[in-house]
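During the practical work, I selected for study one protein's amino acid sequence and its backbone structure tokens, as given directly below:
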Amino acid sequence: MASSGLQLLGFFLSLVGLAATVGATLMVEWKMQYQGKTHRVFEGLWMSCSGNVRTTCEFHQYLLKLPTEVQATRAVMLISIFLSTVALLTSTVGMKCTRFMDGKAESKSTTAMVGGIMFMAAGLLTFIITSWYVKMIVQIVNESHRLQSFEFGNAVFVSWAGGLLTMAGGAFLSCRRCSRSQSTVSISSNHLFSTTHPKSNYV
């Protein structure tokens, strides 16, 4: 029961982390710039918006003309989402609360562990690429002698949170010590019962 509870906890944490990663990838508020007191410019991975009261947005039309940090972050975030989706399907098959692969406890546990490792890899990719994006923006601001003042939007923090939640969920899913210790205790108790029970028939 404890192992099933940890698997469910890891699965839901990874699911929330995946949702946060998808949301951060689609959000516009990766980078903000204030032009004057009221006019703001938002730049995301897919579009940019500007305005004060009414905001107008337009998609990035030319991929090759985008900054390097935007291209790299977009690509790695998509890879992370794809990897998390595959891990979600794999973990569903390997979880104890599902009826897939019944009668194959070892294979089922290994499948859940593989899904957890994939979740951890996806979360690590999200966290690393977000940190690299922040580093690149700070470097650009420093090289421009603060002529362009940027602030980081909510998408950066949502992406960090998504990466951490995905890694935490994957760590719970890939933990096999609980299930192994529980199985060894049950095996040893059954072995003890089988050895002591026949002796009770003798005088």
User: Anything to note?
Assistant: Strands lie at 31-35, 39-43, 47-51, 55-59, 150-152. The chain is about 65% helix and 10% strand. The mean pLDDT is 79. The helical segments are 2-26, 68-94, 105-143, 154-173, 177-199.
